[in-house]
């Protein structure tokens, strides 16, 4: 059963929302590797929910376990309506994006630029919270542009706590809205984990999770530890590009001696899933593109990548491509993932 990040003191591990990456196919694959991880959707803009194909945007997720819906927007009424529309789609949490620095998001006056408008963010959270009993959380940056990250983060946090926000996920970098691309904003601004830890020291009863630059589970746990400890960690690109890291999550964060997922069971499930997607008019590479990095850094990984990258994109490609790729690398390599995960 999902342990809400806001209702208990146990550490949460999450996979960050990533545009064009954390779609429903990715989440299905990630869930096979970890039953405990909190998985996020890609950001869905409130206007799209209100005027688009809701079933395509919000439904059709066959992933068991906790999933959080991330919404983008800055109009409290539209966000409230979007939350109301999402009711019934079995999400465990709804998150407001206050961290994306892309030009498209800025043009809509939401994402990271909302760091400059803490009162508006509080109003958005309050309106969203009024529509659901689910936790409403916020994912933010330390600040933007020339803001001083001391008062900038404090004001944002204060505003969302006052509005009833259940948790704050902090990407421990500033965002530069002019002069840096979204990709550069994920690497160039320096990390400041101490600033996030300071926020936790000043808000000991609040859920505060850390995001940004974390590469593996051991590092994540080290950065989370402290007095007081942070409440959760969120991996983005590291979890996507090397999804084998997720194999260790249930053991380290689930509070149990979790067994290693069966390699053949994982591949078999992905073959069945792919076959179903193809029957509905999809293509194999829609699914397998999320699996390319599974054996990253291990013997045979190059062959695995080659088969999936070259053969899965061919017209008419079916699940046999995935089976062939697995046979090429072998079960023994999958069994090493747990020890490599940390």
Describe this structure in words.
The protein is an alpha/beta fold and 342 residues long. It contains 18 helices and eight strands. It folds into two domains: 12-253, TIM Barrel (Alpha-Beta Barrel); 263-341, Four Helix Bundle (Hemerythrin (Met), subunit A) (Up-down Bundle), CATH 1.20.120. It has helices at residues 24-33, 46-51, 54-58, 76-86, 103-107, 118-129, 149-162, 182-185, 193-202, 217-224, 237-241, 249-253, 263-279, 284-288, 301-311, 320-329, 331-335, 337-341, and strands spanning 12-15, 38-45, 67-72, 93-98, 136-144, 167-175, 208-211, 232-235. The protein has an eight-stranded parallel β-barrel, surrounded by six helices. α4 (76-86) packs parallel to α6 (118-129). It starts with 11 loop residues before the first strand and ends with a helix.
**Average pLDDT level:** 89
CATH topology-level fold name of the largest domain: TIM Barrel
> What is the CA-based Rg, rounded?
20 Å
What order do the strands of the largest sheet run in, or round the barrel if closed?
A: 1-2-3-4-5-6-7-8
- The total of helices stands at 18
Unreliable runs: 1-8
**CATH class call of the largest domain:** Alpha Beta
Q: Return the structural class.
A: alpha/beta
Terminal CA distance reads 25 Å
